[in-house]
Design brief:
This protein has about 290 residues and is an alpha/beta fold.
Length: about 290
């Protein structure tokens, strides 16, 4: 069994999750994020049917649906709920995208999605809000507080991509949020790349509190990315119960992501944790073989 902890299938407004900023220049060939990128049928055709076939072919049994509402990248949480309800076995967990630029409206959407639509948490991209904010900006705290009060999980996107500059990925800011909300389970998407050593230090410091998880995703498994093996060393020795596997589709294809991930020398029991057990623990999912 494999649980992909962050996917955005081609369904209605979910196709806008990576929408380019109006007027942006096309990605250049030397961009490492498109290195070896395989355009699968589901991507080219924006086909949910093809995506489900690609899930089966890759052996990905379940996926965590993760929303986004940041700037011009707007995914309807209603669309996410609709997709989850159509395929509850494949997509047992939905995470609502929250635009925190307007905090009051953001809190209202948290209450609507978690209480009425039965979402399991929220996903925020503060560095992409207009105007951008750091993750530890006190203006964000009412959002985190309400998520914690409702028992939700917080997906916090932090990397060199999420903000005007790489200071928006600094891990000490994540540590401040984790310390301020000890009852809130926080998943750090992109592993705060490129601050890998600092993020590992934050994870070590957080061990007694235990409310941080990390998804290195394509910032680890794309061949050639710096620091990739640091995650493996950490996983094999002290972080094996805190790393989640995710393709982050449509950033990378399902099969290609999995192939690039399992090539690392994780110990077998650690690899099973990363591919299924950790996500199952976090969200209380059954690990029955399918």
């Amino acid at each position: 069994m494999i649980i992909d902890a962050r996917i955005r299938p081609p369904y209605k407004s979910l196709t806008q999750v990576l929408a380019s900023e109006p007027g942006a220049r096309p990605s250049v060939r030397r961009n490492p994020l498109i290195s070896g990128y395989e355009r699968t049928p589901s991507m080219m055709q924006k086909s949910l049917e093809k995506f489900l076939e690609e899930m089966d072919a890759a052996g990905v049994n379940k996926g965590i649906l993760v929303g986004r509402q940041a700037g011009h990248r707007i995914v309807s949480n209603n669309d996410i709920a609709e997709l989850r309800d159509q395929y509850p076995d494949r997509f047992p967990v939905a995470i609502a995208g929250i635009n925190g630029a307007n905090v009051e409206r953001g809190v209202q959407e948290i209450e609507r999605t978690l209480k009425e639509l039965h979402f399991r948490g929220i996903a925020v991209d503060p560095g992409w809000w207009i105007p951008p904010r750091y993750v530890d900006d006190l203006e964000n705290y009412p959002l985190y507080q309400r998520c914690a009060e409702l028992g939700g999980v917080l997906y916090l996107t932090c990397s060199l991509m999420q903000g005007p500059d790489i200071s928006y990925a600094e891990p000490y800011r994540i540590q401040r949020v984790a310390n301020a909300f000890p009852a809130l389970q926080i998943v750090v998407v992109h592993g705060a790349f490129p601050f890998i050593n600092e993020m590992l230090g934050v994870m070590i410091a957080n061990a007694p509190q235990g409310n941080l998880w990390v998804i290195p995703d394509f910032f680890q498994f794309i061949p050639g990315f710096p620091g990739a093996h640091d995650w493996v060393e950490a996983g094999n020795h002290f972080l094996g119960d805190r790393i989640l596997y995710a393709s982050s589709y449509p950033v990378r294809p399902l099969q290609q992501s999995l192939d690039e991930f399992v090539r690392f020398p994780y110990q077998p029991e650690v690899l099973e944790n990363l591919l299924v057990k950790n996500a199952a623990t976090l969200f209380g999912l059954s690990m029955g073989r399918e």
